[in-house]
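in:
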């Protein structure tokens, strides 16, 4: 038997050290969270996707009375980016959330969103940054793939 370990590199950045890029993406994500449709969970999530061209595409969670029919903010933003700018690679994704009127310290993508993040990076053959932003700090992963160890992706499927 052999024991192995997977390490996940990430940075914790205090608000005072936020780059201009993070500040800009955060503003967009907060604005998006205000437009969330979350009458069931009352949990408002906003996502801002930065594309290589500099374009920013946002999304918020969109809920449904038939719960699984709703969609998370991350997928709303990424699918929107893919639909509007299919040839513009994703460079970064920043997410924020509000619960009971208060900013959530750290919002992290759900499992289904992680799988979609992976597909986006496979599509463009380029990993992107994931920024989970809270009031005091941001947790930053430079490689979205780190969110999904032992992932299943297109390379597992037959070519033809
Ligand atoms: N949600 C997101 O939009 N993103 C996440 O990363 C976690 C959860 C949404 C789904 C649902 O509308 C609400 O938050 C509560 O789960």
């Amino acid at each position: 038997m052999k024991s192995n370990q997977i390490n996940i590199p990430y940075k914790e950045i205090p608000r005072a050290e936020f780059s201009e890029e993070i500040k800009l993406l955060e503003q967009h994500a907060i604005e998006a969270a205000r437009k969330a449709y979350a009458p069931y969970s009352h949990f408002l999530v906003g996502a801002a996707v930065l594309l290589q061209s500099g374009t920013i595409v946002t999304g918020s969670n969109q809920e449904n009375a038939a719960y699984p029919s709703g969609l998370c903010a991350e997928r709303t933003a990424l699918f929107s980016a893919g639909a509007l700018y299919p040839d513009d690679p994703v460079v970064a994704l920043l997410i924020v959330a509000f619960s009971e009127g208060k900013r959530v310290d750290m919002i992290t993508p759900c499992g289904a969103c992680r799988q979609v993040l992976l597909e986006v990076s496979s599509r463009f053959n380029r990993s992107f940054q994931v920024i989970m932003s809270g009031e005091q700090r941001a947790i930053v992963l430079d490689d979205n793939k780190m969110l999904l160890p032992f992932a299943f992706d297109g390379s597992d499927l037959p070519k033809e």
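note: Residues 34 and 44 are 7 Å apart (CA to CA).
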